[in-house]
Each structure stands twice: as C-alpha cells, then as structure tokens.
Amino acid sequence: MGTQTIRDLVLGMADGLTVPFALAAGVTGVVASSGIVLTAGLAEIVAGAISMGLGGYLAARSEAEHYAKEYARETRETLEIPAEERAEVAQILHQYGVREPILSRVVNEIASDREQWVEFMMRNELGLEKPDERAAPRSAALVGGGYVLGGIFPLAPYAFIPVAHEALLWSIGFTSIALLVFGAVRARVLSTPLVKGALQSWFIGAVAAGAAYGLARLVTH
Description:
The chain has eight helices and no strands.
C-alpha cells in the first residue's frame, strides 16, 4: 500500500471517527430517540464523505496541474536558455560528487534527450515527481470511503439501541476503541510512539464529543 493511499485513508478516517461522534453526542444531549440521532448522523456521514472526497479530488488535481505548469516552464527554458539549464544540471551533478571529465559527458547525455532533461530538472531541481493520472478519483474514493468507515463506529449502537442516552454509552466505548486503534496504526505508519499516537487520537475525539454534548445540554436548559 503506497504512502499516498495510506495518507488518504488516514485523512478520511480521522474526520470520520471524530465528526459523526461529536454530532451524535451533541444530538443525544437534546433528544431521547436513537432514530433521530441515527438519521442526523447518517446525513452527516453522506455530506461529510462527499465533501471530504471532493477535497481529496481537488487536492490531487491541484498537484497534477502544478506539475504540468512547472513541466511546461522547464521545457520552455531548455528551449530558450539551454546554456543556463545545462549549467544547472552540472551544478546538481556536482553536488552529488560528479567531477570533470565525467561531468561534461553526463551533462551532454542528459541534455541529448529533451524529455529526459526536463524530467531530470523536475525531479532534482524542483523535487517534483510526476503524479499518477488516476490519483484524483482514487484519492476522492479513499478519503470519502475512509470517512464512511470511520463514521460507522460511533453510529452503530444507535441502530440497535432505541434509547439515545443508552446508545451513547456504547458509542463512547466503540469509538474510544476505534480511536485508540486508529491512532496506534497511524503512529506506526508515521514511525512515532504508538501510545502517544493512540492517546492523541482518543483525546481529540473525546474533546470534540464532550464539547458538542455539553453545548447541546447547555442550550437545551
């Protein structure tokens, strides 16, 4: 599984676990029926998944458009100011320890193929890799799907327990476990301390849900 795939799933699940949980807790503070909470939660999940998916799509499209713009600029520069561009290639290679007389031969070899030349500059001067053309729709699906997957945990109890306040207790339990596991997995992927990552995710979700529930109770009274 690639880094981009993991990033998109993590982005979607992070909000999917937290936002519906906070919404469900907030609505539970003012209603007694689990059906109402479930309906509101499902509506939020649909809206949130679409919003997050579109956000992921636009982010991937922006990355592709930025690459295309820089690629066109580098191509133009190799045509209009080839001497300066060759000097930049030599400077980059020099930083990697390539010296004369090999340096000139390598520069000539790179500059002999314009596509190769431009791609070398994109990667080594600008630090840009060519994005996957399928990245935008895939990113949208992963982010949106991650949001839906995360939202299942806080809402599942409301589908089986008719009294909202009783369902909330189970929701807290399910979501707490999911947040801890999710935080640990994310920490593992990012090579950060597992316990710290798990507790951070749980704390963010707890604060959001607690604030939503408290505000709803305050407004009601």
